[in-house]
């Protein structure tokens, strides 16, 4: 079965850090750009962070850049997102995604470029 599976979500206290992981099953992402997105209740899905196929370049939402770090471990077919100093505004379902392209771009991370999505993991930040 081909899938991306997120883990690491749950209830987090405001001010703490969270680390989400995405593991691939039945597909490889070593040659593709990967990304994290999130969708809060009643809002559109928004881009959080992206990373090139090699991990040599990373990209962040300007509003989250100072608190976000994305990394990948191709040998384990996994990649991760770390978000620090969380606030209740970070409450959302977080999704990982694989682009069909190796390099990050707006197109690569758009609905046209992404070919696989994870099911999402809920993150709830309590104050």
Tell me about this structure:
By secondary structure, the chain is an all-beta fold. The protein contains no helices and 11 strands. The chain has strands at 3-7, 10-13, 18-25, 34-39, 46-51, 58-60, 68-73, 78-83, 92-99, 114-117, 121-126. The strands form 2 sheets. Strands 2, 4, 5, 6, 9, 10 and 11 form a 7-stranded mixed beta sheet that branches. A 4-stranded antiparallel beta sheet has the order 1-3-8-7, with no helix packed on it.
What is the average of the pLDDT values?
Answer: 93
What percent of residues adopt helix (DSSP H or I)?
under 10%
Largest sheet: 7 strands, mixed
List low-confidence stretches: none
Tell me the structural class: mainly beta
How many helices does DSSP assign?
0
In total, how many beta strands? 11
What percent of residues are in strands? over 45%
What order do the helices and strands follow?
EEEEEEEEEEE
- Please state the overall shape, judged from the principal axes of the Cα atoms: globular
**Radius of gyration, taken over Cα atoms and rounded to an integer in Å:** 13 Å
């Amino acid at each position: 079965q081909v899938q991306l599976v997120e883990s690491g979500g749950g209830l987090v206290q405001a001010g703490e850090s969270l680390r989400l992981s995405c593991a691939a099953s039945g597909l490889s992402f070593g040659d593709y750009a990967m990304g994290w997105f999130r969708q809060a209740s009643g809002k559109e899905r928004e881009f959080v962070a992206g990373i090139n196929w090699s991990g040599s370049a990373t990209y962040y939402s300007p509003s989250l850049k100072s608190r976000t770090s994305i990394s990948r471990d191709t040998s384990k077919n996994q990649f991760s997102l770390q978000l620090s100093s969380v606030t209740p505004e970070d409450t959302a379902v977080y999704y990982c995604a694989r682009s069909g392209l190796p390099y990050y771009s707006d197109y690569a991370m758009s609905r046209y470029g992404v070919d696989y999505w994870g099911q999402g993991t809920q993150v709830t930040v309590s104050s």
